[in-house]
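Lab meeting notes turned into a lecture example. A postdoc, R.K., suggested we walk through two folding results consecutively so the class can see how the record format repeats. The first protein's sequence and structure tokens come next.
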Amino acid sequence: MEPFRLRGANFNLLVLRLLDPRVEVIVPALADQFRRAPGFLRNAPIVLGLDDLDPVAAPDFNDLTAQLRAVQIAPIGTTGGGPELRAAAQAAGLPPLRAAGGETPQPIAQPAPVPIPEPLPPSGWQPTLVVDQAVRAGQRIWAQGGDLVVRGTVNPGAEVIADGNVHVYGTLRGRAIAGGADNLNARIFALNFEPELVSIAGYYAVRDGLGDAPLGRPVQVCLIGESMRFDRLG
């Protein structure tokens, strides 16, 4: 029997866009995020986004990787950025990744790589995923390429994710992430709004940042520009 097989696959990964090259700024900011939203990004594989960094001011990727792993974040590669940034990241063990259906980054010279099949792009929008029970702490449910409907409570420490809209026909006490990376029109609906975190297309708000959101009420969350709006339903 053969000892292994290689095949292409698609995965839902969060991108951590680096806006500042200084490790001593990035990591404390993440630590502050963890204090406000316990469990956010814990043990999550992430991709480092390099597009917003100065091409000649690369972070210390070895130090950044070590410090992220120390707080239970697992960086697995990079996206975007120029050749110099990608080369510096690759030297620290962070290869450039290509989004399914996206552009291939310019190659970085390296010794004879073993060819690996490219991931297949998603086949299109998928039917709505319906979950008929509560989502327990520690569970993560993702509706790839479509909407997600939960007919129960999303408990603290649970995470529900959809590339489209998220509907919670119960109490939302955990984290709800809608819109994937770029669906700015996605929305989050909850019959009882008590979230740890809500996010649409990468824009997010934690419990302490919900402002005048009508907690404990039926709520719709949407994006207006780069700001979240929380509208009471009914």
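The second example is placed directly after the first for contrast:
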Amino acid sequence: MARYTGPEHRIWRRLGVESAPPWVRVRRETPPGQHGSGRIRGGKQSEHAKQLIEKQKLRRFYGVLEKQFRRYVAKASRLQGVTGHNLIRLLETRLDATVYRLGFASSLRAARQLVSHGHIEVNGRRCNIPSRAIELRDRISVREKSRSLKAIRDALEMRGNVLPPYLALDPARMVGEMIAVPERSEIEINVNERLVVEFYARRNVRA
């Protein structure tokens, strides 16, 4: 399955504008299509439909393909604790998500491109793998020759001093660090992860 590269606002009009990421500007709240204004998103839905929508919200937010997403679900189910919380934490500690949360990019898609194009270092070494798992005390930085990029400087200026409590940032040096393990309550995403876990439990997803 190819990664979707079209306009994100169409996806979130279909899934629900109330869950759209902060970088997506949705001008219309109705679902897309010729008859979108006549459809009621909040109408009666089966439990399966609700689970599917929540799964799509979470997968689309982080830009993860279905096969990889299933692996995250399987891994989350093996960890101690609440499976849904584990799943959110695994996704949130990807390198591209961390780059976005630090303010080096204006969106997760832009963060993924920064990583893929070699502009980001982890613990002083260049890393071009967006899915790399970031661990406690890992240091994430913009490569020295990339610090003058307008896109990065604009993103940092737009983000200001807003940081999740599990990250620290030296904006002048463009160096961030994961200083704590993210808690579910600290991760800003409007999704019911319990329904996501139930969706895959019905399909007996295993590692």
